[in-house]
């Protein structure tokens, strides 16, 4: 058999050659398809994060405009399928984006509650349940105060779901909910706040993504899903909170186990004087204890690896985000400079046009004055000609009269000189 083939076994147990180059080609095509899918999902998450950060009244118009502006037809179709958030979901999104630390408190409390239930620690469960009721109520009132509205039952239930379910807490932290969530496990607390007039009805929790159980909506879904999509910034914030939350939960769990071990040792010490000391070896030396500690160490190592990986991914994404923001800033500055130059040229053109208009008006005024003066001069000249002609006629008439008078005088004189 050549080097480019390998053997495989069919359903009947018969061996047959399988071409490795065909397998590699199929794997390459699958990897390329997965890469394209990841790139498309990342682009959709960026668009959705922009849209769900807007005011609810602006969502539809901005979504349609964004769908028209993207160059990818498939991405545009997925953007158009993004649903407008309900009133309560929009309130939760706004609160989660402005108060990421308070949402982190909900998720950390949920981790503690799940750990307490796993250890069947009744005292711890009661303590954390009371804390849960107080925290959910406190955040519901804080959200209503920031929104300038009454306390919402849907908002309260969504905060409660963020405690009861890790996926719901992640969805709330992303700030891209489309509808409210409902707590769906034994942690659920009753509603003690007032009803809100005009709240949206029928806004049930959204089905989670495949492969993970959730009592509420899962954030970061595909286009047309019931959950919004996270962006680079929201995922970075969520991962930072996740790492800190896990670290704090691990410390609290270790402290709680140490306290339980101390109580057991103290109880054994109190029983020993009366001969009631158990015969089994200390719990810390038991195989089950060692296995539990080994699992804990493995879990801590796994969590640390996840945190390191998430931090690396976060650093890369933050670097990409900074580069993109820098490019956008440079583009904005360049556009601003071009706009300023354009406005300056327009101002100069307007000033030059105004100056030319003023010069033209002045020249026209001068021309009008010259025309008036010329007309007056022409009229004076015509009058002078008329008077000259009249004076010449008067002169000629007077001259004739003088000639006639002289002639008459001569005749009279000669008549007097007649015969003596």
Report low-confidence residues grouped into runs of 5 or more.
Answer: 1-5, 185-232, 270-284
Q: Oligomeric status of the shown chains?
A: single chain
Number of strands: 2
Shape: rod-shaped
Based on secondary structure, the structural category is: mainly alpha
Compute the number of helices: 10
Distance between the termini: 186 Å
How do the strands of the widest beta sheet line up side by side? 1-2
Radius of gyration: 49 Å
Q: Provide the residue-averaged pLDDT.
A: 75
Helix fraction, binned, reads over 70%
Order of helices and strands: EEHHHHHHHHHH
| Strand coverage percent | under 5%
Q: Major β-sheet, in short? A: 2 strands, antiparallel
Layout of secondary structure:
Elements: E1 5-9, E2 15-19, H1 20-52, H2 59-69, H3 73-80, H4 87-98, H5 100-119, H6 122-147, H7 153-164, H8 166-174, H9 232-271, H10 287-416
Antiparallel strand pairs: 1-2
Helix pairs in contact: 2-3, 4-7, 5-6, 5-7, 5-8, 5-9, 6-7, 7-8, 9-10
Description:
With 420 residues, the chain is mainly α. The chain has a domain at 27-194 and 204-272. It has ten helices and two strands. It has helices at residues 20-52, 59-69, 73-80, 87-98, 100-119, 122-147, 153-164, 166-174, 232-271, 287-416; strands at residues 5-9, 15-19. It has a two-stranded antiparallel ribbon. α4 packs across α7 (153-164), α5 packs antiparallel against α6 (122-147) and α5 (100-119) runs antiparallel to α8.
